[in-house]
Amino acid sequence: MDFYRFLASRTDRMKASEVRELVKYSRRKDIISFGGGLPDPASLPSKEEIVSAIEFISSLGDRAFQYSPTSGVPELKTELAKFCRDKLDIKASEDEIIVVTGSQQALDISSRILINQRDYIITELPTYIAAVQAFNLMRPNYLGVPMDQDGMKLECLERSLRMLRENGLKPKFLYTIPTCQNPAGISMSMDRRKHLLELASKYDFIILEDDPYSQIIFKQFYFKRLKSIDSEGRVIYMSTFSKIYAPGVRIGWVVADKSIINFYELAKQFIDLCSSSINQYIILHALQSNLIEKRIPLIVQRYKKKCELMYGLLKEMMPEDSVWTNPVGGMFIFGWLNEKINTKKLLIDVIEKYGVAYVPGASFFVDGTGWNTMRLNFSFPDEEQIKVGIERLSKAVKEEAKKV
Amino acid sequence: MDFYRFLASRTDRMKASEVRELVKYSRRKDIISFGGGLPDPASLPSKEEIVSAIEFISSLGDRAFQYSPTSGVPELKTELAKFCRDKLDIKASEDEIIVVTGSQQALDISSRILINQRDYIITELPTYIAAVQAFNLMRPNYLGVPMDQDGMKLECLERSLRMLRENGLKPKFLYTIPTCQNPAGISMSMDRRKHLLELASKYDFIILEDDPYSQIIFKQFYFKRLKSIDSEGRVIYMSTFSKIYAPGVRIGWVVADKSIINFYELAKQFIDLCSSSINQYIILHALQSNLIEKRIPLIVQRYKKKCELMYGLLKEMMPEDSVWTNPVGGMFIFGWLNEKINTKKLLIDVIEKYGVAYVPGASFFVDGTGWNTMRLNFSFPDEEQIKVGIERLSKAVKEEAKKV
C-alpha cells in the first residue's frame, strides 16, 4: 500500500531534527560527541535517591500508578508554587501552574493554542530548533532577531515590530530563552529584559519565556526572570526538571495567568491525558527532600569547570577568525567560523575522519543564515573527551580553512 | 491582559472532556463513581515489583535517566515485537514499532500526520471521546456508524462509503476499538472483522485499530486483531500498558508499516522528544520478568466477577425499557434508557442527591444522538460499591422515568 498519499499536507514540513539524529552518535565509543544536549551522567539521581523515591511512592497506595489530574498531581503543583517563589522569584498560585511532559510539550501546546496559520512569531537568531519545529505544525511566519553578547538586539526587534505595524500586523508571540540560551549560550542583560517587556506592552504581544538552564549559572550574573518582572500577565513561563534532575523523567511545568493555564489544560487532555503520575511523584519527592536544591551546586561546579576548559581550548586552538560565546551558565558554547566554511557540509567528514561531532548551526536560524556556525555541548563529555575532542575539531576546522 | 484575543481560532472547538472532569469525583468518599476509567487498584504493581524494577534500573547506569531515542528504548522495542508476536498474534519487526506516551499520544500523532481539514473520518457510534477530541485539532468531518451486539453495522458503513464515493470523496481513515469497545463494551465478530478489511481495500482507506482492552477477555470469544489479518498494511495498531500494568506509567505503542512509523517518529520529536526513559525501562523489566503475563489472569478474574455483578444488578433493578450491553471483557457497560430521559441533564442531580456518578453517553456520539445513554465503569469500584451504587442509580433512573 502506498501510504504517502494518505499523509496530511502539513507533513511536507516535517523533517528529522539534526540534533535528535545526532543522539545516535552520542553512544558510539570511538566518536567524541559535542552534538547532544545531555546532562553530565554524574549529575543524575543516585541509586539511594531512587530507592528513597520508591519508598515514598510505595507509601502512597495506588495513587502513583493511576491516571492523575490533567493539570498535574496537586501536591506537586503546591511544591512547584513554592519552588517558583523561593528559587525563581516567580509568584504563582497552584491554578497558575500546569505540569507538562517535559518542556517540549509546553512548546507543542503553545503552538496549538496560540498560532493561526500565517501568524507572525518572533525568535532569537539562532534559536532552539525543536521549538521552531513545534511551532511549524501551525505554519506561522517567522521574524528572527539577531543577538549580541547581551541577548536580542532590541533596536532590530523594534524595527521589525514597526514594520509589522505599518502593514497592519502584530506578532502573536515572541519566543525567547533569555538565560543561557540554547544554542547560543548568551544571556540577556537586565536592562534589555526590562526594555523587552516595555516593547511587549507597547506593541501588544505575548512572550514565551523558555527557561531550562537558569539554575545552572556559574559566573557572576545579575538577572531576573522575565516572568518575575511581568506586571501585565504577558509572559508564559516554561521550565523543566531535565537539566536539574533527569531528562528521562519528562517532567516540566508552565506558569501563566489562570485563563491561559486553562487552555493548556484543555489541550493537554487530548494530547496525553496526564503526565506520568509515577514521575510526578518522583519529582515531588525530590523537591520535598531538597534533593534538587542540594544537587544544583554540584552541577554548577562541574559545568563551570568543563565550560572553562572548553572555552579556553577553543580560544587557544581554533583559527583566529572564529568567534566563540563565553556563557555564564547552561550547557552550550556557540561558534562562528570563517564565512567560507559550511559546517553542515563539513560534519560527516569530521565525524568519519576525525571522530568528533557537533551540531551545525544553520538549522537554528529561522532566516536561513548561520551556515558557518556550530553548537558545542560541554555538559555530557568528560574533561578528557573535551581536551581530545576540541583538539580534533580544531584540526578539522583548520584543514577546511586551508581548502576554502 | 485580555488573553482570549491571542488564542488560535481552533481553540473554539476545545472543551473539557466530561470523562476527565469526572475524575474529580472519583476520589470523593461519599460518591460512588462509575464515571472514571481507572483499573482496579488491586491490579496495579506491588511494592515488590517496583523495588525489583528499580534494582534493574540501577543496574543500567545513567541510561534510564537520560533522553532516549524518539522511537523508544531499543531493548523495549525488541521485547514489544516478541509480545506482539506471542500474545497478540501480530508480526512486527522493531522498525514497525514506536513507543508512545500512552495511546492517547498515538491518537494525537495520527491526527497530525493524517488529517487535513474537512477530511472524512469514520467512527463507531458511540466512540471513545478523547480520540474524537484529538482528531478535532485538525477539523475533520465525521461519519458515525451504529453498532449492534456484533460491532459496527457494516451495511450502514458501506452505505456511507458509497455516498462518499458518489460525491467523489474517500474517508481518510476509520477509527475503531474492535474489542471490548470503550464506551459501548461491544466486541466486533470475526466475520465482521474480515468484512471490514475487505471494505477498507475496496474503498481504499486506513484503519486505526485502538486496542487497550483485548487482553482482558473473561468470556468465550473468538477473535483476531485486525492488524493480524491485515494483508495490505492498511491497519495502524495502537495499544497501551495502562490497563495491564498501570496508567501512571504512560507507555503505549503503535505497530504499522515502517513508512508510517517513520512519520510517527518525526512528529513525536517535536511533541515530547521521547517517552520517559525511566518508565520505558520499568515496562521492559515487567515484560522480561513476565510480570505482565502473570498479572493478566488475575485482572481477568477480578473484572469478570465485577462485570457479572454489575450486569446482573442492572438487569434486575433498572426499568424494563432500558438496554445494557453484556461485554466479553474490558472495563465498561453501556446503557440505553427510555428516550425521554436525558442523562446529561440528570447527572448533577444524581451525584448530589443519590451520591453516584456515571458518564452521560451523548458526548460519545459524533452525530449528536445518544442523549439517553450512559457509560458505567466496573473495574475501579469494589463489589460493595457496585451493589450500593447500582441500587442508588436505579432509584434515580426510576424516579426520573416517573417525571418524564
User: Oligomeric state of the chains?
Assistant: homodimer
Largest interface: A-B, 86 and 86 residues
Shape of chain A: globular
Indicate the percent of residues in helices of chain A.
Answer: 40-55%
CATH class of the largest domain in chain A: Alpha Beta
Number of E-type strands of chain A = 14
Distance between the termini of chain A: 47 Å
For the largest sheet of chain A, list the strands in their spatial order: 2-9-8-7-6-3-4-5
Mean pLDDT of chain A: 94
Which fold name fills CATH's third level, the topology of the largest domain in chain A? Aspartate Aminotransferase, domain 2
Rg measurement of chain A, Å: 21 Å
Q: Which blocks of ≥5 consecutive residues of chain A have pLDDT under 50?
A: none
CATH superfamily of the largest domain in chain A: Type I PLP-dependent aspartate aminotransferase-like (Major domain)
Number of helices of chain A: 12
Number of domains of chain A: 2
Q: What is the level-2 CATH architecture name of the largest domain in chain A? A: 3-Layer(aba) Sandwich
Structural class of chain A: alpha/beta
Summarize the helix and strand pattern of chain A as letters.
HEHHEHEHEEHEHEEEHHHEEHEEEH
